[in-house]
# Entry
Amino acid sequence: MFSHSYTFKKIGYRQFFDPVEWHVPVTDNVGGQLSATEKANIKLLMRFEKYATDNYDTFGR
# Structure
């Protein structure tokens, strides 16, 4: 797993990555370091995140 030294803004993500030794947050601008696959994965995850946010009350999860 690679994080490209990304400085996570959301507290939940920071709490997840802080304990691991291999993650050293350096920057919040890693766009130039991402592969095409990583960029596609981000778009896909953002779609799912929006769907989950929009439908949270419907499914209660």
User: Anything to note?
Assistant: Residues 36-59 form the longest helix (24 residues).
